[in-house]
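Chain A, query sequence.
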Amino acid sequence: MQRTPCSLPSLLGSGEGKSLFFFFFFFFFFYSNSRCPKPLKNRDVITLRSWLPMGADYIIMNYSVKHPKYPPRKDLVRAVSIQTGYLIQGRGVKSCSITYLAQVDPKGSLPKWVVNKSSQFLAPKAMKKMYKACLKYPDWKQKHNPHFKPWLFPEQSALPTVALSELSIQHADSLENIDESSLSETKDDRGEGSDEDSVN
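Chain A, predicted structure.
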């Protein structure tokens, strides 16, 4: 999949992600990792994402899965997306409304300051970054394979395929529970995600 001009924060901060496998029309297997506020451990998550075009509207949803080739890493805490996604409704040629749903278990017992910070800042920050990316997207897309649109034409995807039978739902209670509830907030020398756009 192509990267847009702005990378969105995922889970508890800015991070990186990539599509690993393509299944069939409108489904793909996605890995992402995220920086957490120091001194918490960083998280990663593996999801099965799907999107459904409905005329001028889209539904984009994901939930956590597991795959034998991508077990939890020792240096990261494997988080769980219970149900996360967007409802995008067209409101004219250059306008839309977005409804964002995030049911995520970051695993572990987290300090209250993390919960408060997440609920107050992350969703609004994600929407702000998405808005900025959307404004830049038409011009950017004209310069980057303008006819390549696998979200409309899945047959254009060059991702390898994998059998759906190789995946199973990732339940939160099957993962290690990390107790970080006693950790105090400190200055994050790993760097906070900037509100400025980044080109990837």
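Residues 16-106+157-170 form a domain with the Alpha-D-Glucose-1,6-Bisphosphate; Chain A, domain 4 fold (CATH 3.30.530.20). The CA atoms of residues 23 and 146 lie 24 Å apart.
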